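Example for tutorial group B:
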């Protein structure tokens, strides 16, 4: 049995098709103007999930990039301080060698060497108290303003030998260090243990230079102190090598982060963005189809009685 196709049914079907064409054309126009294939989750649920995952990876990568940049700042500060400290300690060693030349120096010359050593010790302490963004780079996780403080104490009080001597104290944290996460499973220490590099208390390099200066003033042979200076020099050079390794690790991480940022952006583009040329072609085809539908509808639908009455 063949069903009867009424004029009203033809009109309703035609209207539905025209509205569908308009909706598709509006969707293509929106994609062409925004450049995005996904404007709401219902456009592509699976693609939306992928885009959200990629954007999460982008945020994590951006944080790693900020961490790596901060790590470079810390490591650069530590490296500069260590190199300056090494140079100062070499100067102190040269002064000690001069002071060890017994019989060739007057007491005035020895006093002058002692004064230079005192100045070198203070310059070393300034390097040991280097800071980055207000944080001491040799004090670990401590929030102390200085990694090494200096106070003066009086010894042999009330005797002819009464004198004031400096006392150096390490104020840094005893354990742990400042770390930065530069990848999902990679962290790097960006500070340096001041107690290991410069020593602590009476064993510090500052106290050592002060003792050498005191020996020079008292006419004591300082030749035996050279091995102590060499021990502190070895500690500094070892830390310089360690910092160089960590610095290289962070620089390599920055290169990897930059490459990952490009990769993630490419992945997001492939999921979210439209092929503009293809979209424009589809839009033109849809416009042609819509115009053709209007023309066909005009010829197909018969005029109603009201049309005749006009």
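The residue assignment follows.
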């Amino acid at each position: 049995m063949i069903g009867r196709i009424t004029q009203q049914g033809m009109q309703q079907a035609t209207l539905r098709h025209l509205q569908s064409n308009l909706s598709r054309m509006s969707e293509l126009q929106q994609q062409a103007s925004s450049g995005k294939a996904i404007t709401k989750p219902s456009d592509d649920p699976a693609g939306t999930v992928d885009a959200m995952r990629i954007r999460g990876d982008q945020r994590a990568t951006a944080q790693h990039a900020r961490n790596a940049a901060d790590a470079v700042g810390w490591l650069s500060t530590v490296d500069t301080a260590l190199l300056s400290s090494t140079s100062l300690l070499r100067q102190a060693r040269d002064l000690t060698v001069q002071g060890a030349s017994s019989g060739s120096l007057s007491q005035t010359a020895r006093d002058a060497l002692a004064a230079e050593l005192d100045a070198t010790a203070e310059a070393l302490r300034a390097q040991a108290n280097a800071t980055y963004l207000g944080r001491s780079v040799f004090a670990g996780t401590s929030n102390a303003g200085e990694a090494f403080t200096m106070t003066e104490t009086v010894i042999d009080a009330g005797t002819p030998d009464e004198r004031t001597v400096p006392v150096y104290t390490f104020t840094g944290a005893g354990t742990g260090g400042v770390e930065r996460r530069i990848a999902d499973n990679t962290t790097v220490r960006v500070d340096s243990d001041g107690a290991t590099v410069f020593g602590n208390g009476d064993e510090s390099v500052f106290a050592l230079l002060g003792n050498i200066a005191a020996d020079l003033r008292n006419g004591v042979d300082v030749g035996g102190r050279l091995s102590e200076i060499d021990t502190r020099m070895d500690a500094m050079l070892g830390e310089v090598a360690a910092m160089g390794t960590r610095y290289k690790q962070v620089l390599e991480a920055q290169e990897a982060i930059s490459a990952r940022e490009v990769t993630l952006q490419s992945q997001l583009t492939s999921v979210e963005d439209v092929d503009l040329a293809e979209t424009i072609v589809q839009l033109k085809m849809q416009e042609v189809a819509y115009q053709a539908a209007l023309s066909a509808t005009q010829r197909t639908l018969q005029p109603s009685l009201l049309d005749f009455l006009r």
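The longest helix spans residues 45-99. Compare this with the pattern of hydrophobic and polar residues in the output above.
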